[in-house]
Amino acid sequence: MNNKVLKVKDTEIEILVSDICKKTFETEVIKLNSLEIEYIRIKLEKFFKSLNKKTKFISIFLTPKQKYDKNTVVSSAKVIIEQITKFIVESNKDTLLKKISIVLKDKKIYNKFLTIATEHIGYINRKIGLYPIPTVDIIIEVNTKNKKGIVLVERKNPPYGWALPGGFVEYNESLENAAIREAKEETGLKIKNLRQFHTYSQPGRDPRFHTISTVFIAEATSLPKAASDAKNVVVATKEEIFLGKYNLVFDHKKILQDYFKTKGNRI
């Protein structure tokens, strides 16, 4: 039996291949029959909310009924790790949980799943602690001869959809420098006239972790191009945004509603 044990805070995360998945007095089991990310997110959220605080062991048994491509395996691994991490961090010490096992029945996807899960746990462990994670988002106003509007990026990673450019603040980096860097990485734009707009801190605004985002407003005089951290990029009008042309994730619709209240019809 192949297995690898990792850690998030004080909880062990075991990833293994097995046909056996038993529920015991101290072990709670959930079976996931699909690798589709929204299915996984909803199932795990409900499962974790229903757990007894005395639960010591959890087994997440992956039994997909159909074949999936590499990208789906990558996305599912990230979402599972994110949901596990969210549960561990939010429950903190108010639980007896010792170990969570992710049990894969299919050996063919084990190696890819393990690689992504290991990388993602390492990435998350560098980001999380007992406190919310600082992030930035940037409302980039584009004003060119042929195009006026707000820059939106299509996300490469879950949660999928459209969002304002932004991301995590790196260690030893100011909020302003993080905003400039993220704008460049996701849109290729060199922004100017950067200024703070508002801070958003509502728990649950990000389905992955508790984040506190400082939102900036900036300007650009050229058109964006999807860079390494974005799948696609557009300049959207106010009408396009609020008529639902773009599926906005996180709380970015709320952010833009607040922004347009202050701007009126000036863009």
Explained architecture:
The chain has 267 residues and is an alpha/beta fold. The chain has two domains: 3-127, Leucine Aminopeptidase, subunit E, domain 1, CATH 3.40.220.10; 133-263, Nucleoside Triphosphate Pyrophosphohydrolase. Helix content is 33%, strand content 29%. The protein is built from six helices and twelve strands. The chain has helices spanning 37-50, 70-91, 107-127, 175-187, 238-242, 252-263, and strands at 3-8, 11-17, 27-32, 57-62, 99-104, 133-143, 148-154, 162-163, 166-168, 192-200, 211-220, 232-236. The strands form two sheets. Strands 6, 7, 8, 9, 10, 11 and 12 form a seven-stranded mixed sheet that branches. Helix 2 (70-91) links the parallel strand 4 (57-62) and strand 5 (99-104). Helix 1 packs parallel to helix 2 and helix 2 (70-91) crosses helix 3. The longest helix has 22 residues, at 70-91. It is elongated.
What is the overall shape?
A: elongated
The largest β sheet comes out as: 7 strands, mixed
Which regions have little confidence, pLDDT < 50, spanning 5+ residues? none
Fraction of residues in helix: 25-40%
What is the gist of this entry?
The protein is of the alpha/beta class and 267 residues long. The chain has 6 helices and 12 strands.
Explain the layout of strands and helices.
Elements: E1 3-8, E2 11-17, E3 27-32, H1 37-50, E4 57-62, H2 70-91, E5 99-104, H3 107-127, E6 133-143, E7 148-154, E8 162-163, E9 166-168, H4 175-187, E10 192-200, E11 211-220, E12 232-236, H5 238-242, H6 252-263
Parallel strand pairs: 2-5, 3-4, 4-5, 6-11
Antiparallel strand pairs: 1-2, 6-7, 6-9, 7-8, 7-12, 10-11
Helix pairs in contact: 1-2, 2-3
